[in-house]
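Encode chain A's predicted structure.
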Amino acid sequence: MSELTLRIANTSKSYAGPEGSTVEAVREVNLDLAPGEFMSLGGPSGCGKSSVLLIAGGLLRPDEGEVEILGNNLYRQKGAQRAAIRAKYLGFVFQQFHLVPYLGALDNILAPSLAQPLPDATERAMDLLEQFGLSDRRGHLPSALSVGEQQRVALARALLTKPKLLLADEPTGNLDPENAEGILERLATFAGEGGSVLMVTHDKRAAERATRSIRMEKGRIPIAQ
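Encoded structure for chain A:
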């Protein structure tokens, strides 16, 4: 059996609520993701799905439980070691893109190479620009790109380091149907080539592109799924 790309075991996370109350955002969540799998995680607003994504990416420490990326237990590592695991294995795609506003498309795609040096980074970035139909936009700032182009730059940036796992938070939320389909097709291709995708989405059409769909309810993932 192939080593799991992502393993989340008995993981919970609470936040301080109003007037001293406690909000249980994630409650005893268990989730496994194998190579080649494209999983969608859905549910109503506030159900905890975005918290699960941040926990999976090493960006939000859970109160209890374990998170492993290719056998590396994220939250048993020191901050620098956890960041190194993220840089080596993970790619992030967000609804708001988070592009650097004063960098052109090419330099935005190259940004991950600052944390994870790649000898062929520029060559690979240029190839990704071509794959995403952005070769003629490589020097354009995000403000000069359409919404769809910005999301393609963000996805190309996530793919630069050849990650094993893509974490996507509502990647089609700001896109028209044509651009959304292009992003979903690329995520499906990534999984088809042996990568793993965990996508948070409330979009039924996006969820239908996944190989496995899970729905959260009040911080939990029902065992029946």
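The longest strand covers residues 22-33.
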